[in-house]
Amino acid sequence: MRVVIAEDDPLLREGLALLLRAESLDIVATAGTPDAFLSAVKAHEPDVAIVDVRMPPTHTDEGIAAAVEARRSMPGLAVLVLSAYVERSFATELLAEGSARLGYLLKERVGRVEEFMTALHRVAEGGTAIDPEVVAQLFARRLPDASLERLSPREYGVLGLMAEGLGNKAIAERLVVTEGAVHKHIRNIFAKLGLAPTDRTDRRVAAVLRYLEDAEHRA
């Protein structure tokens, strides 16, 4: 797996590189600015990019903007975004571009090497990995959308696991139910949220975005 790291903190940048090399990954480039990151992506065409949310010059959303631009210029690129805090609007902005090959983790997760590597590989293989703490904070409050209130507690829980990036099999294992039961819950979620099979959007992404956007409006 070929990886580019975009992180303006030299110690964290090199620490990530050492960690990933120890896991036998190929670090093809590291960058400390958004421009250097985008140039590295263009030059090396990596499999995965690990990007800090806050980068120079303003340390606000430059990393997110660069990640979105990189995914648009290289559609097959998997991106794992790292953030020191839960930043709802940034999570929503990334998901709006589609959830495949996308991760959003808190930086503290890097210290839990097994969890971090699992998320990285899931993203590289085409999945989604959203930090459980991000999901917990977004889903902790009661949301006013009437369609969301129609979800049963079990359906609500299933949608929370979907937002973490778990597939149907993993959800079934987590809840100790059959995959058939998970399929049924997800069909009910889509129906109650008015997401028809003919919709051109990814219904799983649309369902998660409904929650994320509502939480952002109430923040």
What does this structure look like?
- This protein has 219 residues and is an alpha/beta fold.
- The chain has two domains: 2-131, Rossmann fold (3-Layer(aba) Sandwich), CATH 3.40.50.2300; 141-218, Arc Repressor Mutant, subunit A (Orthogonal Bundle).
- It contains eleven helices and six strands.
- A six-stranded parallel beta sheet has the order 2-1-3-4-5-6, sandwiched between helices.
- Strand 4, helix 4 (88-95) and strand 5 form a beta-alpha-beta unit.
- Helix 4 (88-95) runs antiparallel to helix 11 and helix 8 (153-163) crosses helix 10 (179-192).
- It is globular, with a radius of gyration of 18 Å.
- The termini are far apart.
- One of its GO terms (biological process) is phosphorelay signal transduction system.
